[in-house]
Specification:
Number of strands of chain B: 11
Order of helices and strands of chain A: EEEEEEEEEEEE
Largest sheet of chain B: 7 strands, mixed
Distance between the termini of chain A: 41 Å
Number of strands of chain A: 12
Number of helices of chain B: 0
Helix content of chain B: under 10%
Number of helices of chain A: 0
Order of helices and strands of chain B: EEEEEEEEEEE
Largest interface: A-B, 25 and 29 residues
Radius of gyration of chain A: 14 Å
Oligomer: heterodimer
Radius of gyration of chain B: 13 Å
Strand content of chain A: over 45%
Structural class of chain A: mainly beta
Distance between the termini of chain B: 34 Å
Helix content of chain A: under 10%
Largest sheet of chain A: 6 strands, mixed
Chain lengths: 117, 112
């Protein structure tokens, strides 16, 4: 079964410092991996995805993620954190069952990112 | 211009009532979903529909009944609401050939 894990419930970073939000995955076959962000009282917003190709994926708001097959990881990164980046971040993997009919996303448990001035 | 829109945004109701949440997408996607986010923020799929056909029903109580009148709409009707149904419900859509899903703003359901 496909799964993702986010080992940290909370990450605290000072504004201007680099940030990393960790995600590891377990899939059979090639993974389709995603990062979503949820701001307080708002819906999930798509940040970036890895399907195939370059291991470093660039996304919205200056975020990027590095796909590492040997470590089965897909960590989210940003070189310089902003206070406005404070939110709940979800890693997700596409379950390939029912792929031809849309499939589904399997989410990690979420990581609360707090960026302090 | 909202891509995936849900109504209402907030819903407070008493135990035992029946309520519906509506979802519409204007992205031309083939597949629509309902996800539930519990009090611990954990997200889990409930249902998916592809071209109005139910594809995924993830062991959801039969008090929950999704209905897709057309490709652009997926509504969620809940009978005999229970306290444990309190959660945030997200609608989403995707193209079958595209892996990304786009989510609505969520409906915060509170059962009192």
């Amino acid at each position: 079964a496909q799964s993702v894990a986010q080992p940290e419930d909370q990450v605290n970073v000072a504004e201007g410092n680099p940030l990393t939000v960790k995600c590891t995955y377990s899939v059979s076959g090639n993974p389709y991996l995603f990062w979503y962000v949820q701001y307080p009282n708002r819906g999930l917003q798509f940040l970036l995805k890895y399907i195939t190709g370059d291991n470093l994926v660039k996304g919205s708001y200056g975020f990027e993620a590095e796909f590492n097959k040997s470590q089965t990881s897909f960590h989210l990164k940003k070189p310089s954190a902003l206070v406005s980046d404070s939110a709940l971040y979800f890693c997700a993997v596409r379950d390939l069952a029912f792929y031809n009919q849309g499939g589904k996303l399997i989410f990690g448990q979420g990581t609360e990112l707090s960026v302090k001035p | 211009d909202t891509a995936v829109s849900q109504t209402p945004k907030y819903l407070v109701t008493q135990m035992g009532n029946d309520k519906s949440i509506k979802c519409e997408q204007n992205l031309g996607h083939d597949t629509m979903y309902w996800y539930k986010q519990d009090s611990k923020k954990f997200l889990k799929i409930m249902f998916s529909y592809n071209n109005k056909e139910l594809i995924i029903n993830e062991t959801v109580p039969n008090r929950f009944s999704p209905k897709s009148p057309d490709k652009a709409h997926l509504n969620l009707h809940i009978n005999s609401l229970e306290l444990g149904d309190s959660a945030v419900y997200f609608c989403a859509s995707s193209q079958v050939s595209g892996p990304s899903a786009f989510f609505g703003q969520g409906t915060r359901l509170t059962v009192v």
